[in-house]
Model the fold of this input.
Amino acid sequence: MTAADTAEAHQSPGPTTVPVLQAKGLTKRYGRVVALGGSDLELYPGEILAVIGDNGAGKSSLIKALSGALVPDEGEIHLDGQRVHFRNPMDARKAGIETVYQTLAVAPGLDIADNLFLGRERRRPGPLGSILRMLDHKHMRSEARRHMNELGVATLQNIGQPVESLSGGQRQAVAVARAAAFGSRVVILDEPTAALGVKEGNRVLQLIRDVRDRGLPVILISHNMPHVFEVADRIHIQRLGRRATVITPRSHSMSEAVAIMTGATEPPPPVA
Amino acid sequence: MTTSSTDSASTSVPAASSTTPGPASLPDFDDHRTASPRIRIQQLLHANPTLGPLAVLVLAIVAFTFSNPRFFSAPNLSLVLAQVTVIAVLALGQTLIILTAGIDLSVGAIAVFSSILMASLAVKAGLPGPAALATGLILGTAMGALNGFLVTRIKLPPFIVTLGTLTIFFSLNSVVSNSETIRGADMPALLTWTGTAIPIGTFRLTYGSIIMLLLFALVLFALRNTAWGRHVYATGDDAEAARLAGIRTGRVLLSVYTAAGALYAIGAWILIGRLASASPNVGTDYNLDSITAVVLGGASLFGGRGGVLGTLIGALIVGVFRNGLQLAGVEVVWQGFAIGLLVLVAVSLDQWIRKVRT
Done:
């Protein structure tokens, strides 16, 4: 997380770079419906890869396969060049892939610290933790505060305030902070700005950049073209259950991207 | 470090930094609330959910003491506490279930059936006291576990599950008891021990009440200081979100129903001590009284909100109202009216508190 890392993060991924996360020929059928028809995906270190596509293009199936929420019928997933098999979301999470779902998966009544550590609570050292199974509230709160500060969510002074008292953007920040805190390899964000106003949406985009700049590659699923073009390093266009192509915000315009997405123009060969 | 990374991000993507210029480009998520007194009360109650019930309890005690000074005498307060003890323990189990957005209609049936089982095993089957007690506790726990199994595995709504088991347990209760009451005098001393009182001046504290307070302390600790407690709240708040966060919600629910069954069975033991008998015909009010105590205590029937301190206060409110209205000379029929009214006010208040600015 030094300046050197940050600089490296902004180099365009060359052919020598090994993808952090790679999907090859992922296929998923539901009866006669083909949700994924041999889809590929590559995510390189230190980049934000946006995944766009029309409804039914297989975006969410692709993401679910990567986050363990569905098991593909065929195809391979490689993490750092090693083949992995995710049977459920916990497997993916253990491998270091954190997903922020559109529904956020936060418990509104619990406070920020509790939510950050939900399902991964820390116990007190010694017999208080091992026998009485006491939680280490103090440690979790200070860790939570550190994670929130690292992402620059500075004005959430009270880490003990319930998540339901937060605005949509603040809740999103908590969910992103949780993913960034525990994701060691990849962070996947599903429509993180969909429910937000302009101002809060921009702040969440800033959070996403911060996550990338800390060295975690990000997969961003979004319908919001301006947001995608604002933060993405590369854009994966999903169409009819497969990857149509990969473009960058510099190589193509928004309307060209939409045209490829909807099949109005032939997909160009993948960039980079 | 945070600042430098943000700066580098904004330089690499100039289009973005224009929206939030300067070094203050940190996402600050400020919210500018304008807090009117009404909103402030709402937020205060939202942050401290036991405050409202506590105020009601204190006001009720003051009012009843003015209407009849005998109310605040040690013998009468001992009576209130003894009357409240069984309901409080049952409401404690009910609290756990309501926290998970469930409801348990079989609470009274489990408690009464467990008390009949304990007494019958001792008196009719001739089991020694400890064995009869232990078997009764295990069977009561198993009844709770059965509810949990039906809710989590067969995936039936808790209302329907416990409506069914309520009827089944009451029916079995009649079969086992043959609709006869077993006198405490015939039972081993252990079973009626919970009704024994320690005199503190003119105040009489029963062992049953001590057990009740210990159980509240235990559940309070578990809910506040263990991961299990956090998971109970998260599951009740939003089960799907909890599942996506990696919590095994099925296990949490099963553990909650089982723990509730164990609490009801301990409540059964206290019930035997309180009545100095085991009667198959008591306990029909226990379902609604336990739910009333939980709701008055500020827990939400939609789950994820509330706590055991509130329930203890809620149970005390029920006890204080029943006893105080009686001492004030209000007829029994109107006592139910008053408590029903209180419940409606409590639920309306909960709805209002839930609408706190989001």
About this structure: The two ends of chain A are 25 Å apart (CA to CA).
